[in-house]
């Protein structure tokens, strides 16, 4: 894999999307918990980050979609499912993962029809079988790498969009995460900046055999040097209560290469 830091373009996150279509005339969906009120529905979900996983010389790129809420579409009332969940998707390399986070982990919501069983909170599906069409549509635009703390602070004083890349080793390969820097701290007196942003994707323990099933929601922090710390979302027990909730609670520190890129007008 070529070093992603040498790439003079970054993802245009606000104009890149995960898309999928459900057409019940052709096939019934296998990922919903309510009967669809329409026969045809398209989804356009903007991206939060990209993660490129390289192992054994093969690279796979995945997009993390923005979070939404579970809903019925094209209805006049009772839009929101009850109980409701945060829902988002990860898509790429012919794989698709739907994440549903309810008020507690292992809520036990049934799929529709119930004969399909419980709705997995990490639902890895074959998109060819689950949807009529699906795609990860990526648009890139020119960017310039920021190579000094003076240049970085100068850009952060303004309104220009900044994108970060964080690369770190995994068994048998490497992951590069690319993401817009949303929240950042910086100081010209102490000559530092610290990214604190997310959600992004973290490559961790697998929940199934596919590459996409290694990917978990996280926030990332770094000072631009040789490390990054990810705060990973996972089922977290509540003290004194027999339940767990989905919470960003698992801190992971990795040796990393970090870079910042300012988007060119």
Provide a short characterization of the protein structure:
This protein is mainly β. The chain has helices at 127-130, 149-156; strands spanning 9-11, 17-23, 40-55, 58-65, 68-69, 86-92, 95-101, 122-125, 133-137, 140-146, 162-170, 173-180, 184-187, 192-203, 215-222, 227-237, 244-263. It is globular and about 60 Å long.
Instruction: Please give the count of helices.
Output: 2
Rounded average pLDDT:
95
Question: Uncertain segments of ≥5 residues (pLDDT<50)?
Answer: 1-5
Number of strands: 17
Percent of residues in helical segments? under 10%
For the biggest sheet, the summary is:
17 strands, antiparallel
Write the layout of secondary structure elements.
Elements: E1 9-11, E2 17-23, E3 40-55, E4 58-65, E5 68-69, E6 86-92, E7 95-101, E8 122-125, H1 127-130, E9 133-137, E10 140-146, H2 149-156, E11 162-170, E12 173-180, E13 184-187, E14 192-203, E15 215-222, E16 227-237, E17 244-263
Antiparallel strand pairs: 1-10, 2-3, 2-9, 3-4, 3-12, 4-6, 5-6, 6-7, 7-8, 10-17, 11-12, 11-17, 13-14, 14-15, 15-16, 16-17
Describe this structure in words.
It is a single chain. Helix content is 5%, strand content 52%. The protein has two domains: 129 residues, no CATH class; 122 residues, no CATH class. The two termini are 28 Å apart. The protein has two helices and 17 strands. It has 265 residues and is mainly beta. The longest helix is centred in the middle third of the chain and has 8 residues. The N terminus is likely disordered. The chain has a 17-stranded antiparallel beta sheet that branches.
């Amino acid at each position: 894999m070529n070093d992603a830091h040498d790439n003079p373009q970054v993802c245009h996150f606000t104009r890149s999307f995960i898309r999928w279509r459900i057409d019940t005339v052709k096939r019934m969906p296998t990922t919903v918990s309510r009967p669809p009120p329409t026969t045809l529905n398209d989804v356009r979900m903007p991206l939060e980050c990209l993660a490129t996983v390289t192992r054994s010389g093969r690279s796979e790129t995945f997009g993390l979609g923005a979070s939404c809420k579970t809903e019925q579409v094209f209805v006049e009332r009772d839009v929101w499912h009850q109980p409701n969940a945060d829902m988002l998707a990860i898509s790429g390399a012919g794989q698709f993962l739907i994440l549903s986070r309810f008020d507690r982990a292992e809520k036990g919501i049934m799929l529709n029809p119930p004969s399909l069983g419980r709705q997995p909170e990490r639902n890895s599906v074959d998109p060819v079988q689950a949807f009529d069409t699906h795609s990860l549509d990526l648009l890139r635009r020119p960017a310039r790498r920021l190579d000094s703390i003076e240049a970085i602070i100068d850009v952060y004083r303004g309104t220009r969009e900044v994108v970060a890349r964080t690369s770190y080793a995994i068994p048998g390969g490497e992951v590069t995460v690319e993401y817009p820097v949303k929240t950042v701290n910086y100081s010209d007196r102490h000559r530092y900046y610290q990214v604190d942003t997310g959600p992004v994707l973290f490559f961790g323990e697998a929940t199934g055999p596919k590459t996409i099933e290694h990917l978990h929601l996280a926030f990332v922090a770094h000072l631009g040097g040789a490390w990054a710390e990810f705060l990973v979302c996972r089922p977290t027990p509540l003290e004194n209560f027999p339940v767990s909730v989905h919470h960003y609670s698992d801190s992971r520190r990795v040796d990393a290469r970090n870079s910042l890129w300012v988007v060119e007008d």
